[in-house]
Fold this sequence. Notes:
Layout (H helix, E strand, L loop, with lengths): L2 H22 L7 H6 L4 H27 L15 E2 L11 E6 L3 E3 L8 E3 L21 E4 L1
Amino acid sequence: MPVWRRQRQSSAVDEREKRLRAVYGPPPVATLEACLTRRPRRRLLVLTSALVALVVLVDSVTALYLVLTPARYTAAGCWWWTARSVTDITAGSRGCIRGYVAAGGLLGNGTDPSDYRLSYVYEDPDTPIRKIDCPVVPGDWLVAR
């Protein structure tokens, strides 16, 4: 490319730059300090706050679940929320049952004496009776299999 053409192109770019700077001002300074002090974009801020709100919501639901779910006397493989209530049990039913312990080896639907109750045993009825250490007392909840 001839030298006179290079100079012409370079001067055309300089003229264009002068016109643009006259209208829009000087070019932005891209320094490290300018990048660090720049405010975060609104969209990023909205997404971050939405993510934080979602995490807080999940944590609060998990905490509420842990507070409301009884877990002290639960049989292996059973869960309080999926175990059937005492009133839902019929002859020949299988699976987990939940209720509140009542005096005399009974499992009730609640702690009120007028609630429906069901008899339960810790051992197979055909085995010899021996003294069983029972940690539950009347009024405690129980999930049994």
